[in-house]
Amino acid sequence: MKLWGGRFKEEVDYLMNQFNSSLPFDKRLFPHDIKASIAHVTMLCEVDILSNEEKDKIVYGLKEIKEEVDNGELKIEGDYEDIHSFIELNLIEKIGPVGKKVHTARSRNDQVAVAMKLFAKEETINLIERLNNLKDALKIFGDENNIIMAGYTHLQRAQTVTLKYHMMAYFEMFKRDIKRLENSVDILNESPLGCCALAGTTYSIDRDFTARNLGFNKKVDNFLDGISDRDYIIELISAFSIIMMHLSRLSEEIIMWSSQEFKFITLDDKYSTGSSIMPQKKNPDGAELIRGKTGRVYGSLMSILTTMKALPLAYNKDMQEDKEQFFDALDTVSNCVVIMTSMIKTMKVNEKNIKDSVKMGFLNATEVADYLVNKGISFRDAHEISGNIVLYCEEKNIPIEKLSIGEFKNFNVKFEEDIYDFIDYEESLKKGIKKEILQG
Ligand code: ARG
């Protein structure tokens, strides 16, 4: 069942036939190919290449095939080279020889390019919606948990922040991710339909018509580029990779925070698993899997970048390799966003441990230095004095705020009673631009 038997004497080898077929995976492009085919024949009729009657028959046939696939009567399987062959051959079987006219002024090269772009657009919009749900979940979680917490650098306790502010950092990352996806859609939004195999066609077809009809901003400017451009797939998978990197960083924190060492959060049972040998174990598998699957999406990015490298213009069969990578990366990132959203919505916060995290670790040492700066000491000298205080407290195993005023004064005479208020963890968040942290 081939669309191109004419110049061949021999059947294709059995293994080669399987090797060549993309139907098992490109069947996902079915609705998009039907849609583009309907737009194509509608245009062919507009420019008088097909009669009204022919167009109606073909559109009817395509819609019937869609209906039959949707209701399960027709299965997308069998010895077809790809989804495009499947649709065309089934169309001919259904409506007879007039079906053979569907491929006038079209090639599978522009056909696959347009179907893939329609698919990519639709799925990216779905992903943006999922990311918006994740952003909402982070915001709600933050509003419900506006509690003081240690902020870290180098995984060492550094300065006071709030749990809400910490989570809102991820909110910002996902906000940028959405912009990246929107921008990718904006760039890909040009129709390749009508570029044909590589060099357009001798027919005066109307590419603006199909571009408009399919919801593209415009038609592509160059036929060769139109059928061989896979930039948008690379760009989207690279945006997916950045999303995964963000999800993986958040996962890593969730994994740490749910450990006995931190005990900041408790994951819901629904997103944890147990151990087959250690009865006490509750493992953060959801977060670990997201962290792990990040590598898989990066792999897809490397794969498609490498496939496209050094391909001469225009279409080469190598490009068929874009599909499995794109579908897998898309499914992975979409699932990870959904799982992360549910995990955030259901995890419980151990407020006491989070609040306690600010107490040990000298998180107010910078405020001690700031205090001295306010009293006229240079920041570098104040830094040194505060460092000496930390050393002293470390030896005595007490936090800075537990020093007596006499001890403070031993380090510098400028210390007064108001130092305690100044270095209070909650109070310090009300000063200067740190107010932004409290406001979240
Ligand atoms: N299945 C092919 C792909 O995914 C469709 C294009 C085939 N074109 C061709 N000239 N063989 O790339």
TrEMBL record:
The keyword Cytoplasm applies. Residues 362-429 form the Argininosuccinate lyase C-terminal domain. Belongs to the lyase 1 family. Argininosuccinate lyase subfamily. It is found in: Cytoplasm. Its EC number is 4.3.2.1. This is Argininosuccinate lyase. Keywords: Amino-acid biosynthesis, Arginine biosynthesis, Cytoplasm, Lyase. It comes from Anaeromicrobium sediminis. It catalyses: 2-(N(omega)-L-arginino)succinate = fumarate + L-arginine. Residues 6-299 form the Fumarate lyase N-terminal domain. One of its GO terms (molecular function) is argininosuccinate lyase activity.
